Amino acid sequence: MDLNSIYTQLIMEHNKSDHNKRALCNPDVCERGHNPTCGDDITLELKLNGDIIEDASFEGVGCAISQASTSMMIDLIRGKTLDEALEMVERFLGMIKKEVTDEEELEKLGDSIVLQNISNMPARVKCAVLSWHTLKEAVS
Amino acid sequence: MPSFNPENLKKDFPILNQNINGKPLIYLDNGATTQKPSQVIEAIKKYNETSHGNPHRGAHQLSIRATEEYDLAKEKVKSFINAKSREEIIFTRNASESLNLIAYSYGMEFIEEKDEILLAISEHHSNILPWQKLARDKKAILKYMYLDEEGRIPIAEIEEKINSRTKIVSIAQMSNVLGSIHPVEEIVDRAHKMGAIVVVDGAQSTPHMEVDVQDLNADFFVFSGHKMLAPMGIGVLYGKKELLESMPPFLTGGDMIEYVYEQESTFAPLPFKFEAGTQNVEGAVGLGAAIDYLQNVGLDKIEKHEKFLVEYALDKMLGIPYVNIQGPKDLNNRGGIISFTIDDAHPHDISTILDSYGVAVRAGHHCAQPLMRYLKEPATARASFYLYNTKDDIDQFIEGIKNVRKWLGYGS
Q1: N or C: which end of chain B has fewer CB within 10 A?
Q2: Smallest CA–CA separation between A66 and chain B, in Å?
Q3: Is the entire prediction scored with pTM above 0.90?
Q4: Could you say which architecture CATH assigns to the domain A3-139?
Q5: Do B146 and B265 have their domain in common?
Q6: Which residue does chain A place closest to B23, by CA atoms?
Q7: Are the Cβ atoms of A12 and B409 closer than 8 angstroms?
């Protein structure tokens, strides 16, 4: 295992940045996600305009992987429709399970493509997928 | 007796002789489970190669040998914790099952509405959930003793919380998160004065310090084999004979019976009344061999060695400004467990980064969510030591700690 492939610059930036970590004013959707074994605990908030995700944010605590993954996901889904967002979730989970390997497909995942290597660290996979499962739970 | 040398002891543990991520393995997760010396591995192998049969069930040679091995292991456990008789030793799967047995069997028989069951806020989930169910089912009241800033139970708290309504006090002898050793003697004294029984969870203490159940005068005492060099799946329940005799069976089935008729049955005497079905004989053999090993080294020496390791590690950790210790910062009444956090680093990241230095530590809530809430920490990292850990191990651990923040993009 190479720590450099896990704690990348991009993950560190997202972990430290607060640009997605805030409360929304009157969110339409509010969904809590929790990893009971390690204590990652986030609440995902969505502001909708029709079926478009106008804004999204999260609050909570967790490790660098969970926090960065959540932030990257929010960057990705802001402005997208709910269906597009769900598609992203499937694509991301597919990448982690190594079922989605097509470069073009993966590139659609934006920054979160850097979490590809997490599949080599089974103990940390649940940290990376927490927010994505939470989003799926929230909108499906 | 040879002098204590952890470097030599380490050679008895084949698993410790390997590299993890290119670095020598430093195993500091002994609070979760311990490793096995060749002596334990060989004892189990020998049992399986020469003596395996179903105990108590046959007149043939292998069944007889398996019975002898099983009983011998029980005799070793009896001596190890100084129980009065072998009848007071029940084999279970682990401390969790032992605690469930007490809650279901003793609790359902003797606890009544409005009775109080008292725990410490630092208990492991296994010493909370069975009592929550009992309290719910019997409309009893579950209460907690709270800790001071050093992670210890104040005597005033013991005197206030244990009163004439208290019927059961169940408490870990050593906290699996903080390493604090609780004042069990005082708790037992007070509880007995008030007419309550005391259950002691010895999962963290028994492997690391001398335990004498008659001295402690606890009514029940439980522990797990896998935290003291034995395999997983073998645990112990000690209970005072008169209490065990007054309790109904927990699990029922084969080997725990006297006579079985179509509609009713009578049960076997202690300890078999509580050992339904074919038992984990190879686990018991492994536990017996682990006890031999620990006694050969000397529990007093193990305790002293761990104290040295904690002193050395605490001294270094307290000198690092961004490291925070949860639990006692001095050496009084504490065992070889250090829970800690690092500023700006989540414990899971700490564990992953330390792993890359070959150092195994636990991260998370350590099956003690109420304590974490009380400490206002979502999680901690935990280093826990044992007889095979050395000063060099601690140095490697500290080296890893000093690199954690760097990997997470913080200056130092």
Answers
A1: N
A2: 10
A3: yes
A4: Alpha-Beta Complex (3.90)
A5: yes
A6: A1
A7: yes
C-alpha radius of gyration, chain A, whole number: 14
Separation between Cα atoms, residue B111 and residue B97, nearest integer Å = 19
* Interface with A, mutate which of B20, B326, B349, B380 (most A CBs under 10 A): B349
Q: Is A114 on the interface with B (CB under 8 A)?
A: no
**Interval B350-400: pLDDT, tens:** 999 999 999 999 998 899 999 999 999 889 999 999 999 999 999 999 999
How far is CA A63 from its chain centroid?
Answer: 13
Structure token pair of residue A116: 């590809």
Active site residue B176: no
Residue that terminates a domain, selected from B241, B272, B295 = B295
pLDDT confidence of residue B259: 87
Say if residues B94 and B235 touch (Cβ distance below 8 Å): yes
Q: Are A7 and B408 inside 8 Å of each other by CB?
A: yes
- What value does the mean pLDDT take over residues B19-48? 97
Residue A16: its chain B contacts at CB < 8 A? 409
Q: A83-138 pLDDT, tens per residue?
A: 999 999 999 999 999 999 999 999 999 999 999 989 888 889 999 999 999 999 99
Domain span at residue B353? 6-29+298-407
Tokens of A1: 């295992």
Establish if A125 touches chain B: CB-CB under 8 angstroms: no
Q: At what angle do helices B61-81 and B281-297 cross, to 10 degrees?
A: 40
Contact state of B408 with A15 under an 8 Å Cβ cutoff = yes
Same domain? B361 vs B390: yes
b vs e for B257-288, b when ≥16 Cβ sit within 10 Å of the residue's Cβ? Answer: beeeeeeeeebbebbbbbbbeebbbbbbbbbb
Both tokens of residue B214?
């008659």
Residue B36 lies in a domain: no
**Are B141 and B235 found together in one domain?**
yes
CB B342 within 8 A of CB B405: yes
Q: Is residue B60 part of a domain?
A: yes
pLDDT at A1: 61
Specify the CATH number for the domain of residue B136: 3.40.640.10
- Whether the Cβ atoms of residue B179 and residue B366 lie closer than 8 Å to each other: no
Q: Verify that B193 and B159 share a domain, yes or no.
A: yes
Q: Is residue B210 located within the same domain as residue B231?
A: yes
pLDDT, tens only, B280-332: 999 999 999 999 999 999 999 999 999 999 999 999 999 999 999 999 998 99
How far does the CA of residue A114 sit from the closest CA of chain B (Å)?
15
Residues of B in contact with A66 (CB under 8 A): 346
Percent of chain B whose pLDDT exceeds 70: 99
Same domain flag for B322 and B394: yes
Same domain, yes or no, for B320 and B368? yes
> Which ranges constitute the DSSP H helices of B144-234?
155-161, 184-193, 213-216
* Helices A122-139, B347-356: inter-axial angle, 10-degree rounding: 150
Residues B239 and B94 in one domain: yes
For residue A100, which amino acid is it? V
Closest-CA residue in chain B for A13? B409
Whether the predicted pLDDT of B2 surpasses 70: no
